[in-house]
Amino acid sequence: MEPLTSPPPYTSQPSASTVSPTAPTVQITNPMVSPFVTPAQKLEMVQAELEVAKLRLRQQARERQGLRRVTSSRASVLQRLAPKVIVQSPRPRLERIPGEEPELSIPKLNQRRIAWNMILSEAHTPSAWSMASLTKIMLRDLSMETHHYGMMLVLRAVSVSAMHSSMQTCIAVEDENGDYELLTVHDFAVTNHLSREIQIGSFFVVLEPFFRTVLDEACVLCIDHPSDILFLDADDPMLPHAWRTSVVERSPSHWKQAGNEALRSDNPIEADHSRALAARTANRAKDVVGGIVHRNRAQARLCLERWDGAYNDAIAGIRPLPTEADEYTDFQNMKALYRAGRAAYELGAYARAHSAYTSVTRIAPNDIDGLRELKRTEARMAEQVTGINFWAATGPQAHGTKVDHADFLRRTEARQTLTHGRGLFAAEAIACGDIILCEKALAFVPSPAVPKSFHLVIPPAAARGTFGTQSDMWTAVIQKILANPSIGPRLLSLYAGPNYPPLNNLNIPMLDGRPVVDIFRVENIIEYNSFGYAHDASLTSFGNAALATPGMDNKDCSMGLWLHSSAINHSCLYNAEHSFIGDMVIFRAARDIEKDEEITTLYMEVNADYETRDAALRIWGFSCDCKLCEADRTCPETPRRKHLLQQAKEVLERLPTLNATFEPHRVVMMFEDLLTQIEDTYPEEFYCGLPRLGLVTLNRYCAFAYSRSDPDKALKHALAVIGAHGYKLTITEEDIEFDRTNAMSAPQVVDQLMNASRIYESKGQMALVSGLRELALKMYIVINGEPSGFDTRYGKAREHGNTGGV
Ligand SMILES: C[S@@+](CC[C@H](N)C(=O)[O-])C[C@H]1O[C@@H](n2cnc3c(N)ncnc32)[C@H](O)[C@@H]1O
């Protein structure tokens, strides 16, 4: 008999995986933290530090609320700025303004600080007022811990921007009275409009300013929502006379040249800005250049991934056709159409992209690029109807990348459920193994290949912080939505937790020409709807699976937000498995699904212990009411089972000692005895036809222990693992029946189906060999999304047992 050792893991390498929308991920590069501390321990340490910091902060905020702000001199404001500045790369030094106090130098450190670099505002909504309707106040009129509703500040930057935290920029500002203060602003809009504009001398308005305590115990002007700051040109009438300078009126062609130069030097933001000015001046002059500047700005916006604006500009850049053939106009229109096609393609608006590329090929029927893009767009349109052909298309090589495929959503639709909010329902019957849906992420943050610096976000009123890729997701989603407000309604329709009732109007409002996005609502949407998962290009088997390695610590996993899939509710007796390829999520039917049946999936690994499982699900604010949870809740044996499961866990932890002390058969007997006791805690009247997850682990160990010495016992334990997942496997001489009602697909089941297949092979029962392999392969594809890795793990089918392959 084999000594009892751990059965092989599902994956060839350990990796973290979770489908938890909320599972915090952490990567700390702080050298003060020992590299031998596990991620879970690090998380605990930081959480503890945060709890103390939050309490202190709340206390200070209470004490200070409404107190008049203490005025600060320029020197003292800069003094406070300097220690905050953590220079990452070549961030500039504070510059000296002649005649002012001597300048401070900024220490160049190569690391970021951790716990105090966090966001800790109480949730509040962005200002809903246009600048023109607000009353101007001065810095000296500010009160602490106060939102100054109906007011605005007009300010000038007196320092360069400095990194305040991994997600915030900090600058020193002054008002026209010569008072100074520090201002922090989130770096959400790095590619949009904020950080690039904050430089010495830039002017801006802060709408309904919020003056609050930060963790260095001082107050700062805090801008949470990107739309609460508005930059002004140097000649803006809003500026005090002493600050105002006239802006030299330039011609459209000047701005066009400036834009071209900016693009050439790889600065699409500057190009976009120049082209906006060109468009403004050109429109005024009703100049022919108007078409050009729109086309050019479309190009700059493509570089900035502002697909909405790029599409509109490209369409505006199409010139009316002259009565006679005109090569120049054709050429310019092709440029505009290409840009429109690309922007529409990126927005997933394939019909619009198709129309643009068709027009290109009408102008130039042999244009190779036009024909190629048209074909590519047609492939995406076909995928929307038929789904991706994974066998021909993609594979594990797509990990960590954005895959070039279309959503396939037509088989499902979101509807209201009776008790679980919105849910996703099958619009047609879907057979076990078939694709339910494929969807590209709205935003996707791959796990970093190299551990990154520490990102920490403390959502207001939350019990805990979020780390790593989860906080990067916040930035990614907000950037995406600021750049493409047309996506707003679909994002804002998602469940945002108990503190955010559904909105009546889902459109992103525009104020003074910019989109108004409530970052706290978005943070909650991410919290409740995004999926976190591990993917590792080097993994072959089960590499795409959502729960590749149950029980591992959470590490810095990848995260994404999928708008349509977000309507899917949890059930421990799920009928859909999900897997990930690049930024695409794939849901497959884990059993036959009827038309109008609700699609459900696992939010996290189902723990055999009910209390543990229920506590984890409460993070999402609900208790599962599936038949299994109902049985666990009502069965009087549940507490005894918990105790026995704990005992089993302790025995497994002592396995090396047991193996060294006892003969293998004695250890196996100990396991079998425990199994009998656990089995007794699943009375038939409560668990008829349901999974009995407490029996999985020990049976796996026993199947492995008997694998060489006693095939019949190994088979018994292998079948017990399958049965413990709720499957009814009936095997006769030649035939296999497999009932999936109320069952849970899992890598362990695939392993044991193949284990049983091999045992039957050794007994010469070849009909069963291929039948079991077929079942295993089908479940593998359901879990992994596609077949790659199956043969690597289990070997190729022999000639006589060939299942027909994939
Ligand atoms: C990703 S959303 C799912 C869609 C959501 N029901 C909606 O209305 O948009 C996750 C939230 O749905 C609810 N939910 C999911 N599964 C549930 C279940 N089995 N029972 C009750 N509520 C559930 C919880 O409020 C959870 O936080």
TrEMBL record:
This is SET domain-containing protein. TPR repeats lie at residues 334-367. Residues 1-23 are annotated as: Disordered. It comes from the Eukaryota. It comes from Aureobasidium pullulans. Pfam families: SET (PF00856). Residues 1-11 have a biased composition (Pro residues). Keywords: TPR repeat. InterPro entries: Gramillin-biosynth_MTr (IPR053209), SET_dom (IPR001214), SET_dom_sf (IPR046341), TPR-like_helical_dom_sf (IPR011990), TPR_rpt (IPR019734). Residues 410-604 form the SET domain. Residues 12-23 have a biased composition (Polar residues). Transmembrane segments: none annotated. CDD domains: SET_SMYD.
